[in-house]
Amino acid sequence: MEDYKNGHIYFASESVGEGHPDKLCDQISDGVLDACLAFNPDAKVAMETATKSNLICLLGETNVSKDQVNFEQIARRVCKEIGFDSMETGIDGNNCNIILAVEAQDANIANAVFEQ
């Protein structure tokens, strides 16, 4: 960066509006967090969601198991609630592919979090 100046702080940010896929991803992650907290008020959740071309990927760790909270069902419900319900919107919440890469929270992280 030729125009970079010493002592200056540079930052970039993005803001997206209703209907943007990033907003959908945020709402799915929030839906998962809400469901985990409803099941266990002390739940720990680190969740990212990504989407592209009728595909939703949930990636993260939590101390709430997939047997206790249905992550796929939450993703589909959120999609439909906010209008992603046909291929015309780019994602059909009823029929999209969903990849779950959600694992139990790492024991070292869990121990550190619960010690505080």
CATH topology: GMP Synthetase, Chain A, domain 3
Count of DSSP strands: 5
β-sheet strand percentage: 15-25%
Protein structure class: alpha+beta
C-alpha Rg (nearest Å): 17 Å
User: Which term fits the overall shape?
Assistant: flat
CATH architecture title: 2-Layer Sandwich
Number of domains: 1
- Helical coverage, percent range: 25-40%
Strand order of the largest sheet: 1-2-5
What order do the helices and strands follow? HEEHEEEH
Summed up, the helix count is: 3
**Could you give the distance between the termini?**
42 Å
Kindly list the characteristics that best describe this protein.
single chain, 116 residues, alpha+beta, GMP Synthetase, Chain A, domain 3, two-stranded antiparallel sheet, 5 strands, flat, methionine adenosyltransferase activity, S-adenosylmethionine synthetase N-terminal domain-containing protein, metal ion binding
